[in-house]
Automatic annotation (TrEMBL), chain A:
Cellular localisation: Cell membrane
Family recorded in the similarity comment: Belongs to the UPF0718 family.
Membrane topology: Multi-pass membrane protein
Keywords attached to this entry: Cell membrane, Membrane, Transmembrane, Transmembrane helix
Family annotation (Pfam families): ArsP_1
InterPro entries for the chain: DUF318 (IPR005524), UPF0718 (IPR052923)
Transmembrane segments: 27-46, 58-87, 136-160, 167-186, 218-238, 250-267, 273-293, 313-336
Positions of the UniProt region annotated as Disordered: 1-23
Protein name per Swiss-Prot or TrEMBL: Permease
Length: 337, 257
């Protein structure tokens, strides 16, 4: 694969070649035709050879994470592309408070209206930044929206029958973390850490700009989603869950362990409440930490953030979010649960 | 990654998603049934974006003559310009990462991952205790066999104060998982809430029946064994069932509970 990419590189570089048919090397269709033959023939030849239970279990979980995240990713990418192509930049300066410190909580609370999971929020936040929204406000939106939207709140309430405070605590803790991270980023963050996607509106029609943005974001974010999905599937198969129950009785450690589990499992925020509900050996506060950390920090999300905003950003943003999410969960859990 | 490759990868990805949703029920191995319309919509969008890209790629030499070249070239290749800039910050994350989108396609077609089975449920640990549901369980028929989900059986065995299972014959459907203990095996079903990554194996120990081959789907008819002591906390051991009849069946269309 890297050979292919290297072979492509020279043909992409000279601008004089662009717009002509030669921009696509004639080999490309043939390589893809070979792949199609491989897929069709491999179905009969290779599939029986690949029937190890461990590999199949890994592949099932990997495909499940990828397939399950795809609709949300497509939704987020289309919304982001629509923001870029159709919403004028002036809209956001009018919609959000002028003062950045006031814009952060407003953007965080606005996350309540975007139904979706964390895969959708990364491209949308990136689209918001490229349209001139203060990065800290877009980040607050990024963190809040997967955890506080109506679908997730209802799912949490359903998963914890008779414990309505769990949904309330999740909503409160997630919003508090999002706003705190936004403010901290505003106060201490440097613009050089964050690779704000500079997407100037293309010269062509708006629909062409929309398609360009959607295709680019989908391929880019989708590639990183696959990285996250592979990592999560590997850990899911390799790490036995029985390791967890041994620490369930240790008060502080159990909270940290469930928070780490949320990072490793990378479960969609619309489903994680059901998993949290099944972890009955743990205290409510530890399960709250699982629910607050999961939508904000997990492996597929980290991969998406590295891909979208750069490594320097993720190296600072991810630990900050994780620590604040654990601390706020402990505080909110202590008060409400 | 050139534009034709980008479009072709999207065609493959969209095609693979439509292949497992529209033309088969394979998607039920990975996600809940209710997810189908969303998957079809997403697959169609990805496929359409790829096809439109391909059509434009083929028509380009005829659309953009030499006069229009600078404008056309710029707008068409906005994505690449952007990546040129990104390259200044970070060389490792070009659009090459999009090649990885081929991996789910390969996995779907070549490995053809089946529903989670005995390997995923291999741990000897009992399933996590299901949350106590607010619903009260109805009484079971006295003389006929009642078919019920394994989740309901475990719920009745663990959380039902009226012991409605006592002496009643029930039928459970699941696949066979071996046990390290002697004279028993587990009839198992994976409970899934959203996708296979959050699957939780629900196991019921089957006593007094020969074990069919691992991963065979079976219908087990039998009677619950009430634990000798109520002092064992729920969730420490799987509920037990004395089998009177074990029938092998084909895998259900919906493999999860």
């Amino acid at each position: 694969m890297s050979d292919r990419a290297l072979a492509d590189a020279p043909t992409e570089l000279p601008p004089s070649e662009w717009g002509r048919r030669s921009a696509a090397p004639p080999a490309t269709p043939w390589i893809f035709a070979a792949i199609v033959v491989l897929l069709v023939a491999g179905r009969f030849v290779l599939t029986p050879l690949l029937a190890f239970p461990s590999l199949q279990t890994w592949a099932t979980i990997f495909v499940a994470i990828s397939v399950q995240a795809l609709p949300f990713l497509v939704f987020g990418v289309l919304l982001s592309a629509a923001i870029t192509a159709f919403v004028p930049a002036s809209f956001w300066t009018r919609a959000l408070p002028r003062h950045p410190y006031a814009a952060v909580p407003v953007a965080g609370a606005a996350g309540a209206v975007l139904p979706g999971c964390e895969c959708a929020s990364v491209p949308v936040a990136s689209g918001l930044m490229s349209r001139g929204v203060t990065p800290a406000a877009a980040l607050a939106f990024l963190l809040a929206s997967p955890a506080i939207n109506p679908v997730v709140v209802v799912a949490t309430a359903v998963a914890f029958p008779g414990q309505p405070m769990m949904a309330v605590a999740r909503f409160a803790a997630s919003l508090i973390v999002a706003v705190l991270v936004g403010w901290l980023w505003l106060r201490f963050g440097r613009s050089t850490w964050l690779r704000v996607p500079t997407r100037t509106a293309a010269a062509g029609s708006k629909w062409e700009a929309f398609r360009e943005a959607a295709q680019h974001d989908l391929l880019h974010a989708g590639g990183f989603l696959v990285v996250g999905g592979m990592t999560a599937a590997t850990l899911n198969v390799v790490v036995p869950r029985s390791w967890l129950t041994t620490v369930a009785d240790v008060p502080l450690l159990s909270i940290v362990v469930l928070a780490l589990l949320a990072v490793l499992l990378s479960i969609c925020s619309e489903a994680d409440a059901f998993v949290a509900a099944s972890l009955t050996a743990f205290s409510p506060t530890a399960r709250l930490a699982f629910l607050v950390v999961g939508p904000m920090v997990d492996l597929k999300l980290i991969a998406l953030q590295i891909g979208t905003f750069g490594r320097a950003f993720a190296a600072r943003f991810v630990p900050l979010t994780f620590i604040l999410a654990v601390l706020v969960s402990m505080a909110v859990g202590g008060v409400l649960l | 990654m050139n534009r034709m490759s980008q479009s072709l990868v999207m065609v493959f990805l969209g095609g693979a998603v439509l292949r497992i949703t529209v033309f088969s029920t394979t998607y039920l191995n990975y996600v809940k049934p209710g997810f189908r319309p969303f998957l079809i919509a997403a697959g169609a969008v990805v496929l359409a974006l790829g096809v439109i890209g391909l059509i434009q790629e083929w028509r380009k030499p005829y659309l953009t003559g030499p006069d229009h070249h600078p404008d056309g070239g710029h707008s068409e290749h906005g994505g690449h310009d952007e990546h040129g800039k990104h390259g200044g910050h970070d060389h490792s994350h070009g659009p090459r990462v999009a090649w990885l989108l081929c991996l789910p396609v390969f996995a779907i077609f070549l490995i053809a991952p089946p529903a989670l089975g005995a390997f995923a449920a291999r741990s000897e640990e009992p399933p996590p205790r299901p949350p106590i549901s607010a619903e009260t369980y109805s009484a079971l028929a006295g003389d006929t066999v009642t078919a019920m989900p394994i989740g309901e059986f475990i719920g009745r065995a663990w959380a039902d104060s009226t012991y409605s299972l006592t002496g009643k014959r029930v039928r459970l459907t699941g696949f066979v998982v071996p046990s390290a203990k002697k004279n028993r095996w587990y009839v198992t079903r994976i409970q899934m809430n959203c996708c296979a990554a959050d699957g939780i194996p629900l196991k019921v120990a089957v006593l007094k029946a020969a074990r069919p081959p691992v991963d065979t789907w079976v219908e087990v008819t039998g009677t619950w064994v009430r634990p000798k002591s109520d002092r064992i906390p729920n969730g420490m051991v799987a509920p037990e069932l004395v089998a009177t009849d074990v029938t092998e069946i084909p895998q259900p269309v919906e493999p999860y509970e």
